[in-house]
Automatic annotation (TrEMBL):
Gene3D superfamilies: Endonuclease/exonuclease/phosphatase (3.60.10.10)
Signal peptide residue numbers: 1-26
The name this protein goes by in its record: Endonuclease/exonuclease/phosphatase family metal-dependent hydrolase
Record keyword Signal present: yes
Length: 298
C-alpha cells in the first residue's frame, strides 16, 4: 500500500491488506461483464453509476472511556455480517480491532481483495501514539474491498494541525483510494474545547486536506464518515463546515456522512448497537455518478 505525505501530515499510516481473487466494489448482485467500448453518444452503453453501501461506527473500545462495555466488537461483527457494507469507517478502536473486523469483512466479501487501514491518534505528553488499556494503539480505521490485480491502494493519513491543548489525545484522519473511483475517508474530531476545536478540524479537513489530495493525486468523488462531535442546528453547527453542494446525513447526533456533489446519499438509517457502545451505527447507500471518467491509480 502506498502512503502519501503532505506538509500537514504529522503521522504515518499503518495499513493491512488481505488479498484474494477480487472484483470492483459494486451493489449485489454483481454486475455482468462490461460490454466492449462504444461511442459515448450511444445511449445503450451510457456509463452506469456505482452503488455502494457505507457503514459508520464508533465503538468506544479503548477500554478507558466510560462508554466502554467490552461488547462493541461482537456487535460490530454482527452488524457487518448482517448488512454486508462495501465501506466501513471505524472510530475509537484499537489496532487489533481492525484486524479482527477485517476477517469478518472478508467473510462477507469472499473472493475480493480487502483493504484495511488504521491511523493512530497521537499522544501529546509522550510524543507517541495514544494507547488502549491493553497497550495497543488507539485510533480510527477503514475497511473496503478493491479490484485486483491492481497497483497497491493509496492511503493518506495524519493528525489534524489544530488540537485542543488541554486534551492529550491528538485527533486523526484517514483516507483510502478505492480503485481510483472513490476516495473514502474517516475522522474522529475533538470532543473538548467547547467543540470549537472540532469545527476548526472539520473546516481544515474539508477545506484544505481533501482538496490538496484531489489536486495532487487527481480528483475522485469523496465521502467522509465519522464522529465529528458536531450537531446540525446547534452552536457550533456542523453545516458551517460542510462545503457548498456536498450532501450530508447524520444519525440524529454526532456521527455524519458527507459526500461531494457527484455522490448521491440515500436510504440513510441507524443500526442499533444494543447498548454495546454509546452511538448507533449509521448506514447509507452511495450512488456515484458513472458519467465522470474514472482515474486508475498510477
Amino acid at each position: 500500500m502506498a502512503a502519501r505525505s503532505y506538509r500537514f501530515l504529522r503521522r504515518t499510516v499503518v495499513v493491512g491488506c488481505l488479498v484474494a481473487a477480487a472484483a470492483l466494489p459494486a451493489a449485489r448482485p454483481a454486475a455482468p461483464p462490461a460490454a466492449p467500448p462504444a461511442a459515448p453518444s450511444d445511449p445503450a452503453v451510457a456509463p452506469q453509476p456505482t452503488v455502494l453501501r457505507m457503514l459508520q461506527m464508533n465503538l468506544c473500545n479503548s477500554g478507558r472511556a466510560g462508554c466502554y462495555t467490552g461488547r462493541a466488537m461482537a456487535r460490530a461483527a454482527e452488524v457487518i455480517t448482517a448488512q454486508a457494507p462495501d465501506v466501513v469507517t471505524l472510530n475509537e478502536i484499537c489496532a487489533g480491532n481492525l484486524t479482527a473486523l477485517r476477517r469478518v469483512f472478508q467473510a462477507v466479501h469472499p473472493g475480493r481483495t480487502v483493504v484495511g487501514a488504521f491511523q493512530a491518534a497521537g499522544d501529546r505528553p509522550s510524543g507517541d501514539d495514544t494507547r488502549c488499556s491493553n497497550g495497543q494503539r488507539f485510533g480510527i480505521g477503514l475497511l473496503t474491498h478493491v479490484q485486483t490485480p491492481s497497483p497497491p491502494a493509496r492511503v493518506y493519513a495524519g493528525t489534524h494541525p489544530t488540537q485542543d491543548l488541554a486534551d492529550p489525545e491528538e485527533r486523526a484522519w484517514l483516507c483510502v483510494d478505492v480503485d481510483g473511483a472513490l476516495l473514502a475517508c474517516t475522522t474522529h474530531l475533538s470532543a473538548t474545547g467547547g467543540y470549537r476545536v472540532a469545527l476548526a478540524q472539520c473546516d481544515h479537513l474539508l477545506g484544505t486536506i481533501l482538496p490538496t489530495i484531489s489536486r495532487d493525486a487527481g480528483y475522485e468523488p469523496t465521502v467522509l464518515g465519522g464522529d465529528l462531535n458536531l450537531l446540525a442546528g446547534h452552536d457550533p453547527d456542523v453545516r458551517s463546515c460542510t462545503p457548498r453542494g456536498h450532501q450530508r446525513v447524520d444519525d440524529g447526533g454526532l456521527q455524519h456522512i458527507m459526500a461531494t456533489p457527484d455522490i448521491k446519499l440515500c436510504c440513510r438509517r441507524t443500526v442499533p448497537m444494543n447498548g454495546a457502545t454509546d452511538h448507533p451505527g449509521l448506514l447509507v447507500t452511495l450512488t456515484i455518478d458513472g458519467s465522470r471518467p474514472g482515474r486508475r491509480p498510477a
